């Protein structure tokens, strides 16, 4: 049996306990905006083109989002049509296939993508690529209620071999709400984004920000991984928040043969693939709030870092992860005493923590790892 240890930040007790915390359990969460009498976890109306209001379980077109208290709320949306709208299409909208020459990248792709059923951005690298680094500069917009029978209803990356090209999308941002993949016959990965396992031509999202709400992956006969995002072997995703903005993961889930799990991100890598990598970076007072769990092959790396001004809110588990904390503020304040278990935990540079404390019952949030 492995021995578990407990790590607490002892540099400054003021960084762990506030005056309010010492009187009992303190609740902390993402900012809530009110629009049309609807409480939303983030401002889903950034672009002023999609309006949200109260929805109903009786309307199958409304988006269901399960909140941290376990209550499922329904949201109705109306789109103000623009020239950049892609609605109710049944084939891949932006299709990049190598077939001997590579996909060569793109400058900017943006718009409103709503209820499309064939995929939005699909990049497929051929085995005979010419080589060289391939980049997409920016991919952003409102991604609402898109679906697919394949992995990644918003963005799918795959390859057939290649010669070692570093592929990247520099900036991906927007509202990813209610996107999903459903299969009755096979495993599925990534309700919104799927970077599939690759050997040589890797894909990296260098900055991913925005709201990920109510996305899901469902397999009726197999396994689903990553309700919002799947990061396959040799690939990486860096989730970011900057300039006082928030990136929120809430209500995302997988369902495998009827078993539901509040899993937002899965980091894979098996059968000869190197394990994928996941990063969270906050700068300039940015905030990342993680209400869903992250899972993956044991030993995958999660790096939580920043410039010292941002906050990472951890309100669920990072399962099987080797976690590295550096130069950030970690908060687990959510009115719930919890033990956060990691495969490995490394703390470097300056960090501070805010933890739930229950003095009456002599308990508090804990960070526990198999090794350090």
Task: Write a structural description.
Helices cover 0% and strands 52% of the residues. It has 372 residues and is an all-beta fold. The strands form seven sheets. Strands 18-22-27-30-32-31-28-23 form an eight-stranded parallel beta barrel. A seven-stranded parallel sheet has the order 8-10-13-17-21-26-29, with no helix packed on it. Strand 5 (63-66) and strand 6 (72-79) form a beta hairpin. The protein is globular.
Sequence of strands across the biggest β-sheet: 18-22-27-30-32-31-28-23
Q: Low-confidence runs (pLDDT<50, min 5 residues)?
A: 1-37, 127-131
Characterize the overall form. globular
- Helix proportion of residues, in percent? under 10%
Mean pLDDT: 82
Indicate the proportion of strand residues.
over 45%
* Biggest sheet architecture: 8 strands, parallel, barrel
Subunit arrangement of the protein: single chain
> What is the CA–CA distance across the termini?
16 Å
Number of helices: 0
State Rg: 20 Å
Q: Class by helix and strand content?
A: mainly beta
Total number of strands: 36
